[in-house]
Design goal:
Radius of gyration: 31 Å
Strand order of the largest sheet: 1-2-3
Largest sheet: 3 strands, antiparallel
Number of helices: 16
Strand content: 5-15%
Mean pLDDT: 84
Low-confidence stretches: none
Length: 413
């Protein structure tokens, strides 16, 4: 089948006190050998008699049958394996396999691990990935998916199916990266040979999201600042959007987790929740200068109790469980986006006005004002300039036009 061979041998490397040696099952694959003890021991003389087939007593005859049965079992297991790995063989041989070659099981394990670590947002993406794959398997009229089934052709077909079913390239990319994560883990665990890995430039590449406009022009920011919502809920949503924009594009989770201990008279300092799990010594602290507009929003919507351990905004409460904290942040994000989208529509914006837009707008407006990319990267808390560059939108049309007109600016000659 896959080049793995079996043999029952006597391991003469270690002798017991009674002069016997262990009888083991030897598996050879790619010139690598591993030995599995069978709980049987013989002297060298008895082993020779057993192998010769002559002058054997009843005990040796029974042992020969037993060992032959074991080797036949190993051969049958190897014949059924789609690809070989020592850990999976041992699982099957001992009858303990829990179908770890199942992609759905691996994704489910990852989902549960993320939940245990309170990484709820990432866990949700794995939940959606499982649903997408299950739907695709139903479309193919299949029930199971093994790691060995994930080939470049399979990935290409799965991607095409997702797009055909109205999944965006961004969403498809998230699901495919989750799938890549569990395949990498399977290789690390010895459940999938490296040569079966389907993700590479020469095999299959995960699609990148199209560079759609995500940032507002400075003139649009002015419209938002000057806009007067009619309800308190809409006013609060608008102000929190502006707070995010002015505070280095901080996301709602970090806004919710801000405490007064993060504030001094001139600055707001915090570590992004997204990166605080990092064990790197150079973990970046975000620093925001408290300009008057930021202070106005805090006074208007912040908690009146300004004790150091009090949250700045009444989104979370002391004692919230991780699950409850996640739910509150999700609800706060949903509420802000609900009202800001309406504001964007009233102002005639082409793109959807969300908290995500605030972060991209912060980076892009700084870029257009001439701020160095290094400063923008530091402000966003990115670990690399490449990540920052993905946030930066293109220049506005009037800026492009001014540069293009220089192509015919002969007056300076």
């Amino acid at each position: 089948m896959i080049g793995a061979t079996t043999a029952v041998v006597q391991d003469t490397r270690v002798c017991k006190k009674d002069g016997t040696y262990a009888i083991k099952l030897r598996i050879t694959y790619n010139r690598e050998q591993k030995y599995y003890p069978l709980g049987k021991f013989l002297t060298k003389e008895d082993w020779k008699i057993l192998k010769s087939g002559k002058h054997r007593n009843t005990e040796l005859k029974e042992l020969e049958v037993h060992l032959s049965t074991i080797e036949n079992k190993a051969v049958k297991i190897l014949d059924k394996m789609e690809y070989f790995s020592y850990p999976e063989f041992l699982n099957l041989f001992n009858g303990k396999s829990q179908n770890k070659t199942s992609v759905i099981d691996a994704l489910s394990d990852r989902h549960e691990m993320l939940l245990r670590k309170n990484r709820f947002s990432t866990a949700v993406t794995f939940q959606y990935t499982i649903k997408a794959i299950e739907d695709y398997l139903e479309f193919l009229n299949r029930k199971k998916l093994a790691f060995s089934d994930i080939t470049p052709d399979w990935l290409q077909a799965f991607e095409a199916w997702m797009v055909a079913n109205r999944k965006s390239i961004t969403t498809a990319g998230i699901y495919l990266r989750n799938l890549r994560t569990v395949l990498n883990q399977a290789i690390d665990d010895g459940l999938l040979p490296r040569e079966y890995y389907p993700f590479s430039k020469s095999k299959y590449q995960i699609p990148s999201a199209r560079n759609t406009k995500k940032a507002l022009a400075i003139a649009d920011i002015k419209k938002i600042i000057e806009f007067s919502p009619k309800t308190e809920a809409a006013k609060r949503a608008k102000d929190l959007w502006v707070f995010s924009y002015l505070c280095n594009g901080v996301n709602v989770k970090d806004i919710a987790r801000l405490k007064f201990e993060n504030l001094d008279s001139k600055r707001i300092s915090f570590v992004r929740a997204k990166t605080e799990r990092s064990t790197k010594a150079n973990q970046k602290c975000i620093v925001v200068i408290r300009i008057p507009e930021i202070n106005t929003i805090i006074r208007k919507w912040g908690n009146k109790n300004t004790a150091p351990d009090e949250y700045v905004f009444p989104i979370l409460a002391e004692g919230d469980t991780p699950e409850k904290e996640h739910a509150k942040i999700q609800q706060a994000t949903k509420t802000i986006n609900k009202y800001t989208k309406r504001i964007g529509e009233e102002l005639g914006f082409e793109l959807s006005l969300t908290t995500y837009t605030a972060r991209h707008s912060f980076a892009t407006v700084l870029k257009r004002s001439g701020a160095p990319v290094e400063f923008i990267s530091e402000s966003l808390g990115h670990s690399s300039l490449r990540t920052t560059e993905s946030y930066l939108d293109t220049f506005e049309d009037d800026t492009k036009e001014s540069y293009q007109r220089k192509l015919l600016d002969f007056s300076k000659e």
